[in-house]
Specification:
With 195 residues, the protein is of the alpha/beta class. The chain has one domain: Maf protein (Alpha-Beta Complex). Helices cover 30% and strands 25% of the residues. The chain is built from six helices and seven strands; from the N terminus they run βαβαββαββαβαα. Strands 1, 2, 3, 4, 5, 6 and 7 form a seven-stranded mixed sheet that branches. The longest helix is centred in the N-terminal third of the chain and has 16 residues. It starts with 6 loop residues before the first strand and ends in a 9-residue tail after the last helix. The mean pLDDT is 94.
Amino acid sequence: MSEEPPVVLASASPRRKDLLRQIGIEPQIRVADVDETPLPAETPAAFVERLARDKVLAVSSAVAPDAIIIGADTAIELDGRIIGKPTDREDAIAILSQLSGRVHQVHTGVAVGRGAQRDTAVVSSKVHFRALSQREIEAYWRSGEPCDKAGAYAIQGLGAVFVERIEGSYSAIMGLPLFTVSALLARYGVDLLQA
């Protein structure tokens, strides 16, 4: 019986690693060093798809030739703008104040590749935030959770109390759409539910 090819996650994200483990994949980690600056007039969906693909390309020369590489990137869109990670306390408070009582989109781009083959997809979800008080926003900042999160919140953490409902993929909002990843992996012969 032939050995399964390694699956490599081109990301340092512990959430993405945990999500892959959830579906039975123990990935090797190779952190991709890519420029995450949006291109002029680039839509948020095109931006995350490009970064996911660039992450796969960035690590491809450092892994086994038969390795299957997964790259992903997530961005929050509000009013057509990409909302990134907060730079400081004031920025986090401003971001959360903008999201308060509104609906925003979360776009996650995924790329799976081996050798010269690449497949990409973008999963977009809507997140409905309830209205937040200034006291809640400041207390949330003090929790430390918003510091390194796109949109200054984590749906899988304390930030879940702000989310009234979602339309789309919960795992995509966390950073890796498992339904889409499993479909892309199947193109490379990875069967997650082998008998």
